[in-house]
Amino acid sequence: MHSIHSKQVFLFPYTIFLVSVIFNFSCASKSDPEGKKLPNVVIVFTDDQGYNDLGIYGSPDILTPNLDKMAEEGVRFSNFYVAQAVCSASRAALLTGTYSNRLGIHGALDHMSKHGLNPNETTIAEMLKPLGYATAIFGKWHLGHHPEFLPTKQGFDEYFGIPYSNDMWPNHPETKDYYPPLPLYENDKVVDTLHNDQSMLTTVLTEKSVDFIKRNKENPFFLYLAHPMPHVPLFVSEKFKGKSERGLYGDVIMEIDWSVGQVMKALEQNGLEENTLVIFLSDNGPWLSYSLHSGSAYPLKEGKGTSWDGGVKIPAIMKWKGKIPEGKIQLNPAMSIDILPTIAEITGAEEPVLPIDGKSIWSMVMDDSKKSPQDAYYVYYNRNELQAVIMDEWKLYFPHIYRTIAPNQQVRDDGIPINYEMIDLDEMQLYHIPSDPSERNNVINENPDILKRMIELAELARQDMGDALLNKKGANNREPGKIE
After folding, report:
1. 27 tagged catalytic
2. What residues have CB less than 8 Å from 19, skipping those under 6 apart?
3. Distance of alpha carbon 400 from alpha carbon 17, whole angstroms
4. Confidence of residue 376 (pLDDT cuts 50, 70, 90)
5. What is the dihedral of CA 41, 43, 44, 46, to 10 degrees?
6. In 323-478, which residue ranges form alpha helices assigned H by DSSP?
7. CA 158 to CA 227: how far, in whole Å?
8. Which has the least CB within 10 A, 2, 9, 186, 293?
9. Is the Cα dihedral 100, 403, 461, 336 positive or negative?
């Protein structure tokens, strides 16, 4: 910009000066009518972290002072959900505000995948770019590793991290040597591989995030810090090794908590606390087969890979100093698909042209008595199978097969998974979540009117996702981007 302008100023000094003044004035009035800076947005997104893995959510043996403080100075959601309980699908929904079924993104992509998030979709980063936001992702992407699907082609100015899960490397305990060396990207280039040690990964991603904040303190920015852990394999730096009462898993969570503290400190030191919305979420519940190397969803039922609350309900904390009321607990349900439209509301950004499923929950963030503006329900798919519907305080399950830990297995502390068995849920079940968070008491026979209404909502959802169900693609003729 400066080098081009210098030539123009030499030729047309007064004209360029006048154009610059008009341009700057029009931009300021369009994006910032009150003369205030556009708000920064930080999303910290962890991997496979359980609902119970923070002190503020009841953990008895993991210290998380920074996240506890964040909750005390902001709002904590007790019933916040992800769209699907698995990596790629969950991330696609977060970044686009759209059910991953509609996008044709299912499961967890790996190095053999020929598809990724379609560049025609609009991510949070792409939505904010027209307003002049600097954008960065540090950590795990997992929405396609081919060049056309990388973050730098999806609205992010900067990318440093891994393209898929951190266990997709030659040391995987169940598929040894199936995966190639785990690539480490900087922007669109592989700059290294992670061999046998990821102990500094959390620290490096944190340092990158802090540096990004410092470099962009004069500009609006969107920072997406997507920690690859506590997804297995677990690694921790020396500064947190052996610090937790919960073993290695607890050490990892404590280091993630430290990371959040470093981000918060950087915002404070650069005078950005009162102009930054910080959001902390997990992509799904704990991967229970990894035993003591997994988190806890207590008191919720089951974990990652299931539509039970232990798989799809996550810790969710939001803070904006001086803006969000402190110490509030939002009891009403919300979902990760609502993050994009919420950011659109607070920044004035235009929502994506293609239809999205989320709706702004800013009113819920500001007032804990408010309910979601959704049409009274959220739906829970596993791939294209509708498994559950939530309506206010109620959750209805449809017949489906899900996985659970096989009984009578010895707890392991070496990172080697124990076995699942499959359970056939052969009848619908209805639960009242506030009085039964562990989903133990099926009350379907006592609530025929609630059941009828929720079945109607489920039918609407099936009709809406009809293309996905019939064609195994995304709904509304949308599908993932593919390579030849």
Report:
1. no
2. none
3. 67
4. low
5. 180
6. 339-347, 362-366, 448-464, 466-471
7. 16
8. 2
9. negative
pLDDT value at residue 467: 53
Q: 179 and 110 in contact (C-beta within 8 Å)? A: yes
DSSP 8-state assignment for residue 170:
T
Q: Sheet of 378-382: strands edge to edge?
A: 378-382, 385-391, 394-397, 429-432
Exactly one of 106, 142, 145, 227 is catalytic; name it. 142
- In the chain, the amino acid numbered 263 is V
The phi and psi torsions of 293 (rounded to 5 degrees) equal: -95, 10
3-state SS assignment for residue 379: strand
Written in H, E and C, the secondary structure of 328-371 is: EEECCCEEHHHHHHHHHHHHCCCCCCCCCCCCCCHHHHHCCCCC
Burial per residue of 291-301, b for 16 or more beta-carbon CB atoms within 10 angstroms, e otherwise: bebbbbbbebb
The label of the residue with tokens 């693609």 reads 473
Is residue 333 within 8 Å of 394, Cβ to Cβ?
Answer: no
Residue 279 to residues 11, 41, 342, Cα–Cα distance (Å): 48, 8, 11
Question: Which pLDDT score is estimated for 6?
Answer: 30
Whether 431 has a pLDDT exceeding 60, the answer reads yes
Cα 360 to Cα 187: distance, rounded to the nearest angstrom: 30
Lowest model confidence (mean pLDDT) among 13-22, 44-53, 79-88, 230-239? 13-22
Which residues are CB-contacts of 349 (< 8 A; sequence separation ≥ 6)?
127, 128, 130, 131, 343
CB atoms within 10 A of CB 197: 9
What is the Cα gyration radius of the chain? 23
Exposure of 151 in the CB half-sphere (CA atoms within 13 A): 29
How far is it, in rounded angstroms, from Cα 302 to Cα 423? 12
Where do runs of H (alpha helix) occur along 245-304? Answer: 247-269
Angle at which helices 247-269 and 65-72 cross, to 10°:
50
User: Whole-angstrom Cα distance, residue 416 to residue 330?
Assistant: 37
Residue 283 and residue 82 in contact, taking contact as beta carbons nearer than 8 Å: yes
Name the phi and psi angles at 448, rounded to 5: -65, -35
Q: Is 142 a catalytic residue?
A: yes
- Regarding pTM above 0.85, the answer is yes
Full set of structural domains in the chain with CATH: 40-374 (3.40.720.10), 380-482 (3.30.1120.10)
- Confidence band of 176 (pLDDT split at 50, 70, 90): confident
Record the tokens describing residue 256, joined without a space. Answer: 């993630």
Q: Is 380 left (phi over 0), alpha (psi -120 to 50) or beta?
A: beta
* Per-residue pLDDT, 472: 53
